[in-house]
Structure formats: structure tokens, C-alpha cells
């Protein structure tokens, strides 16, 4: 779609509002809206101004003016607004220099794609994320000087199996059961899966806005854990689609009085929500990750790519698992991919090789540790840069391990490296290991430093506050 196509669409479909969208550094979609009566085609060339100092991770107050440049190819009609609204994803530039903004995550992804082509290794990187999320009926939380709590609830939650629900006029309970047991929510049909229609509606709305969906299903956790998988796409396009994905699933949920969260670990002692990321590199129409007759059909290129991801994994987690809550999920058990190994079928491995199909077009690797709180543009770019570093330096990963890691003897398990145990550890790893990200000026030192400083603030925010369970452990001492 070109700018002239956008202007024609606005007229033909009676669009009344144009929503300009961009992403802040942590990964939340931002926007402002222009009346269709005021929207002119020259905004595609001249940009629209906004205050960058009010956006997380962007400018300081003395350098606040920034420009948004709509990318006409991203325009789509919003499925949720009452007034006909056209959404357009934007790139960010400095109004003084006219240069693209180095802290614009979408620009980082664009540079990553350009760098890939410049290496000659491949011309296209495909990404296929699998975001998981919970669907709740009630969410409350708060923190004051003398109180802190959270409360989530779902009619599906197994903790509600004995609750009095929907009483009739005589006060008799109408609890119908059918609540997935803890860690047993994977694939039951309705009525146990009570969100079938809701997820289908999410899928159909996603398809309307240009996000191709392959499958949806209930996930392992109780209380409405869900997964909707997108068809793979190139890096920047998939970064755009991940933002659409989060926007659609949250707003379809709200349409039905539900709250959707992509927080990795909202429920204690049940499975958390991850975002496994499938990746492959293609050159001139051929999959560079495929080689017949090898372990899992992997080429040397694919092995080196895996080697780069495993080597740089502690630093990668700072972008791929960027919240303190991310590390409530990355613990032994719960299918947590904490082991820095690769395997064909072992789901506790950091990198898995799907073997559903042996064809070249299906050959890919699956990085399992990321979660959906990440900024997709930054996480996908970081994964690509780590993999390319592995190829360029021929980093050979440790041999594959297809055993059940939880049954390994302690002495063997101790030999396997694991992911960092906290956001603070990941940030320390990023501070020590980020040269691979700076190649081709894909990530800048300024962006890396800003990210680390911003995220250390989140670490301190948690560190300073008493935890409710500390009262259970220590109040009577």
C-alpha cells in the first residue's frame, strides 16, 4: 500500500480518524489520533511531531521534539473503534538532523535486516513466535506504604472447583465443574475448554488486520491459559504483527469482559507463559538451515547459529525476558527451557529442533526461553545478531542432548549451563557481552546503556518493596 492508496482508502471507506502508532523502548504501543479532515498526504514526507521526552526510554526534556513518519504499507482498519479508524505504524526521526532515531526499536529491526543482507549469509530471516497468555475474569493489585497485594481470578481456575457459583433463587449453587486441573489444561475440548469461541474470535480478528494464524488452543495452565500461533514472517513484519497480536487479544478479551495478560508468571505453581521463537535463514529461495542426513536435518550454518544463541543466551535474556517476572517462569519444572543445550524433542532445552516434518521448507530452530513481555523488534534483532555471530565465528554448540534432563544424575546435570536466575543477572551479562549486537550499528552503545539503566530501575523497584510472603516467613521472628 502506498501513500496514495492510503488516501484513497480513507475516502472510500469513510475513515474518520487516523491513528499514528509507534513503540516505546520497553515495548508498549503508543499512539495519537488525527482527524481524517486534517490528515494530508504530505505527512508521509514531512512527518508528524510529538513529545519524545514523555515516552519511556526516549528523549530528555531539553530535546523532546521528535517526528513520526507513517509507513503506508502497515495501514489497517481498527476492528475495535466505534468511529471508523485507520491505524498506521510509524518510524521515528530526529527533526533537526532528519536521521532515523537510534532508540526506535523498529529502526533497530530494519537495521538488523539490512545487516543480514550485507553479510551475504542470507537475504531473509524468518521468525515465528508463539505467544502464550492468560484470560482472567478479575484482576486486582495494589501497593501502598503499608499494604501490597495482587488477586487474579478465572471461572476456569481449578481453585474454584468448590466455589458457590451462579446461585438460583433458592441459593442453590450452579457450579458446573469443568475446570482444568493444574498443569493439565493442554488440549481438552469444551466444556472443559471454556474459551474456544473467544480464541476463535481473536483468530478471526487477527486475520482481518493481516496477521495469518496457524493454530490456537488451550495451554497447559489452568485459569484460561491460551496460545494462538502466527504464521512465520520476516523480522520487521513480524515485529509489527506481534504488536497487532497483543492489541487484538487484549481488546477481544475486553469486548467480553475479560482481562488478557501476557505476563509470564501470574499464577503460583502452574505453568507460565512463554513465547517460543522459530527461526530460519533463507538465501535466494533456499533454506540455509537444512541439510539432509544430519542430526535433525541441520546444516553447519544452523549449528553455528545455535552456537551463537547458546553462547550469548545470558545477554539475550535481557531483551528476550526483560521483566523481573520473567524469571518466575524460568525455573526447573513447568517445561521451563532453562538448559543451554539444543535437542530435537527435549522441551527443557533452550533450543529445540522441531521434527514434525523432514522437508527443507519446514526446517527451523525454536528458541524456547523468550517470553511475550519482550519488545519484539529488539528481541528478534538480538536473536538474529547472536545467531549471525555464531555463523561468522563458527561457534559449535555442545552436542545435542535428548535425555530427560530432570532425570539426569546430579553430577551430569551440573555440567549443563543454565539461563540466568534473575533480570539483574541478565543485565550484568548484557553489560559484559554486547559487542555482537553493535555490528553494523544495529544496536548502538547508547541504546544498550539506556536499556540497562532503565531495566535496573525495575530491578530496584522490586527490591525495595516488601513481599507478601515475607510476612509469612518472617513476621514472627
Structure characterization notes:
By secondary structure, the protein is α+β, with helices and mostly antiparallel strands. It has helices at residues 3-12, 43-46, 105-119, 196-208, 235-255, 300-320, 326-329, 376-392, 410-413, 423-432, 435-438, 445-463, 468-474; strands at residues 17-23, 29-35, 48-51, 65-70, 76-77, 85-93, 124-136, 138-143, 148-153, 213-218, 225-230, 233-234, 259-261, 275-283, 286-287, 339-343, 349-352, 365-367. Strands 7, 10, 11, 12, 13, 14, 15, 16, 17 and 18 form a ten-stranded mixed sheet that branches. Strands 1, 2, 3, 4, 5 and 6 form a six-stranded mixed sheet that branches. Strands 8-9 form a two-stranded antiparallel ribbon. The longest helix has 21 residues, at 235-255. The model has no long low-confidence stretch (mean pLDDT 94).
How many alpha or pi helices? 13
Net shape: globular
Largest sheet: 10 strands, mixed
| Distance from first to last alpha carbon | 67 Å
- What structural class results from the helix and strand content? alpha+beta
Q: Give the averaged pLDDT, no decimals.
A: 94
In terms of DSSP E residues, the strand content is 15-25%
Residue stretches low in confidence (pLDDT < 50, at least 5 long) are none
**Number of beta-strand segments:** 18
What portion of residues is helical?
25-40%
Amino acid at each position: 500500500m502506498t501513500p496514495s492508496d492510503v488516501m484513497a482508502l480513507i475516502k472510500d471507506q469513510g475513515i474518520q480518524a487516523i491513528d499514528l502508532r509507534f513503540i516505546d523502548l520497553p515495548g508498549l504501543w503508543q499512539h495519537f489520533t488525527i482527524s481524517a479532515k486534517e490528515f494530508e498526504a504530505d505527512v508521509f514526507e514531512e512527518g508528524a511531531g510529538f513529545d519524545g521526552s514523555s515516552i519511556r526510554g526516549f528523549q530528555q526534556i531539553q530535546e523532546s521534539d521528535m517526528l513520526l513518519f507513517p509507513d503506508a504499507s502497515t495501514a489497517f482498519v481498527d476492528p475495535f473503534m466505534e468511529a471508523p479508524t485507520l491505524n498506521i505504524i510509524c518510524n521515528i526521526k530526529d527533526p533537526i538532523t532528519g536521521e532515523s532515531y537510534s532508540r526506535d526499536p523498529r529502526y533497530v529491526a530494519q537495521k538488523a535486516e539490512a545487516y543480514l543482507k550485507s553479510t551475504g549469509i542470507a537475504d531473509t530471516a524468518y521468525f515465528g513466535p508463539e505467544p502464550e497468555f492468560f484470560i482472567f475474569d478479575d484482576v486486582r493489585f495494589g501497593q501502598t506504604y503499608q499494604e501490597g497485594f495482587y488477586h487474579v481470578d478465572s471461572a476456569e481456575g481449578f481453585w474454584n472447583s468448590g466455589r458457590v457459583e451462579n446461585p438460583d433463587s433458592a441459593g442453590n449453587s450452579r457450579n458446573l465443574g469443568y475446570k482444568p486441573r493444574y498443569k493439565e489444561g493442554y488440549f481438552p475440548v469444551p466444556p472443559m475448554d471454556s474459551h474456544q469461541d473467544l480464541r476463535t474470535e481473536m483468530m478471526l480478528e487477527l486475520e482481518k488486520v493481516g496477521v495469518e494464524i496457524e493454530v490456537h488452543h488451550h495451554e497447559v495452565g489452568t485459569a484460561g491459559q491460551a496460545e494462538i500461533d502466527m504464521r512465520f514472517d520476516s523480522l520487521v513484519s513480524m515485529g509489527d504483527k506481534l504488536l497487532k497480536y497483543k492489541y487484538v487479544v487484549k481488546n477481544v478479551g475486553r469486548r467480553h469482559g475479560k482481562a488478557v495478560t501476557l505476563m509470564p508468571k501470574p499464577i503460583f505453581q502452574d505453568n507460565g507463559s512463554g513465547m517460543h521463537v522459530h527461526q530460519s535463514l533463507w538465501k535466494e529461495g533456499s533454506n540455509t538451515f537444512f541439510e539432509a542426513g544430519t542430526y535433525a536435518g541441520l546444516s553447519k550454518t544452523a549449528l553455528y547459529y545455535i552456537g551463537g544463541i547458546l553462547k550469548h543466551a545470558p545477554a539475550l535474556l535481557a531483551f528476550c525476558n526483560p521483566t523481573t517476572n520473567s524469571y518466575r517462569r524460568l525455573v526447573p519444572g513447568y517445561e521451563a527451557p532453562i538448559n543451554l543445550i539444543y535437542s530435537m524433542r527435549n522441551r527443557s532445552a533452550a533450543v529445540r529442533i522441531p521434527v514434525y516434518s523432514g522437508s527443507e521448507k519446514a526446517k527451523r530452530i525454536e528458541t524456547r526461553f523468550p517470553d511475550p513481555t519482550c519488545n519484539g523488534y529488539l528481541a528478534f534483532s538480538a536473536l538474529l545478531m547472536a545467531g549471525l555471530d555464531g555463523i561468522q565465528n563458527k561457534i559449535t554448540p555442545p552436542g545435542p542432548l535428548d535425555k530427560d534432563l530432570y532425570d539426569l544424575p546430579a553430577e551430569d546435570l551440573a555440567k549443563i549451563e543454565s539461563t540466568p536466575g534473575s533480570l539483574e543477572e541478565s543485565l550484568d551479562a548484557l553489560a559484559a557481552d554486547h559487542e555482537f549486537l553493535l555490528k553494523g550499528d544495529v544496536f548502538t552503545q547508547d541504546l544498550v546503556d539506556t536499556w540497562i539503566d532503565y531495566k535496573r530501575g525495575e530491578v530496584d523497584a522490586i527490591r525495595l518493596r516488601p513481599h507478601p510472603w515475607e510476612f509469612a516467613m518472617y513476621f514472627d521472628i
